[in-house]
Write a structure and sequence with these properties.
17% strand, rod-shaped, four-stranded antiparallel beta sheet, 144 residues, alpha+beta
Length: 144
């Protein structure tokens, strides 16, 4: 009587091959996840700047962040007072980008992108670094 099945050596080879494939695939998946977080963060930072500018242009004043943009920042209730500082945080809680509202100076918003050691924040800094600086949305010298 002949038995149909795999020998122990064949099963070990299959397990070794699956282990090698897993060792190669898992780091690639982790890097893809970080790239997605970086891309989302850079997009949200650009959206915040555009939303703040559009709100100031239409209303002539700043308000709470929750009224100016739908992007979640560390404290969406801030934004109306002069020199309020709002931080955009990466998903692990590291503050990556700082938005400083200066409503007394004709609608200035100063954006500071942090080049920290956090991988996601560093990636956002690389992509959204051109947003660094002061954006003037009111007065006679509007610049973006």
């Amino acid at each position: 009587m002949k038995r149909a099945g795999f020998t122990m050596i064949e099963l070990i080879f299959v397990i070794v091959i699956l282990g090698i494939l897993a060792a190669v695939a898992i780091p690639k998946l982790a890097a893809t996840r970080d790239d997605a977080k970086i891309s989302k963060g850079a997009s949200e930072v650009a959206t915040i700047v555009a939303d703040i500018g559009a709100y100031y242009t239409s209303k002539g004043k700043f308000d709470a962040f929750s009224k100016m943009t739908n992007v979640k920042v560390d404290d969406n209730t801030k934004g109306a007072a002069n020199n309020d500082v709002i931080n955009y945080e990466s998903k692990d809680g590291t503050a990556c980008v700082e938005f400083k509202i200066n409503s007394a100076a004709d609608g200035n918003v100063t954006v500071t992108v942090d080049k920290s050691t956090d991988k996601v924040c560093a990636g956002i800094s690389d992509i959204a670094g051109d947003l660094n600086g002061t954006h003037v949305f009111g007065g006679s010298s509007v610049s973006y």
